[in-house]
Amino acid sequence: MNPMDLSIIAASITAITTVGECDAIIATVEKEKENAQFLALTEERKIERLSTLSATIDSDFASATAEKASYVTVIPTLPAGNPVRKQLEDKVVALDFRLFTLNQRRARIGRGAFISARMKYSLLLQEVDNSTPILALLTQKRATL
User: What are the residue ranges of helices labelled H in the chain?
Assistant: First the structure.
């Protein structure tokens, strides 16, 4: 927390005149801290899930690309009208669609979502860290009342 912000908050805390008022503010700050901790945990799990999902998508994409490449090399060697050739051509079309959908998922779940979740997580951790000195100031003030 910025020292100037803390001094502004400290000046505001000096205006507290009763134990009840101080207790109410302490309870509010503690609740906000708990909420930020919970949201940070949620974001941390989201980051882990995005990371795992991204690796799975990359693996599926590589697998589908390799499978398509193998079919594309075999198809020209088969005679026209061969039922196996038609079957492989159909598989190539299906794999093209699978690659398309994996690219769409990769774009949606990619770096942008990961960076956004990391930023939100960092901000929430900063909020938790900032509440600690505020609670200390409030506890000191309560002791003087």
Answer: 3-13, 19-74, 83-109, 111-144
111-144 and 3-13 helices, crossing angle to 10°: 40
- Per-residue pLDDT reduced to its tens digit, 3-33: 778 788 888 898 899 999 999 999 999 999 9
CA-nearest of 1, 6, 45, 38 to 124 is 38
- Residue 62 CA to residue 123 CA, distance in Å, equals 35
With beta carbons less than 8 A apart as the criterion, state whether 96 and 44 touch: no
For residues 81-90, b (16+ Cβ closer than 10 Å) or e, as one string? eeeebeebee
Q: Which domain CATH number covers 100?
A: 1.10.287
Amino acid at 85: R
Q: How far apart are CA 93 and CA 83, in angstroms?
A: 15
Q: What sign for the dihedral angle of Cα 12, 18, 21, 24? A: positive
Boundaries of domain holding 87: 3-144
Structural domain count of the chain? 1
In this prediction, the residues of the chain whose per-residue pLDDT falls under 50 are none
